[in-house]
Design a protein that fits this description.
- By secondary structure, the chain is α+β, with helices and mostly antiparallel strands.
- It contains three helices and three strands.
- It has helices spanning 13-25, 35-42, 62-78; strands at residues 5-11, 30-34, 53-58.
- Strands 1-3-2 form a three-stranded antiparallel beta sheet.
């Protein structure tokens, strides 16, 4: 039986693809839903590039994933 999923990221496709790999490198399985890519494949464009990707993790991994992502965003923002 599949556990419930929790949303941990909504944003651009480019960053979403990176974060998907980043979570997996940190031992956190995730699922990416790319609404823009799906709609283009179906013949129309839905959504915008800024919020095209949603990343979900199993609920039991939510806190761990949030910590990993929060740490990443904090370190990235310090470099600006």
């Amino acid at each position: 039986m599949m556990d419930e999923l929790s949303l941990v990221y909504t944003g651009s496709r480019v960053e979403g693809l990176f974060l998907e790999d980043f979570l997996k490198e940190n031992g956190i399985g995730c699922m990416r839903k790319d609404t823009l890519e799906e709609s283009i494949g179906a013949g129309w464009a839905q959504g915008s590039p800024e919020d095209a990707v949603k990343i979900y993790v199993e609920t039991f991994n939510y806190e761990k994933a949030r910590k990993v992502l929060d740490d990443y965003f904090a370190s990235r923002d310090k470099k600006k």
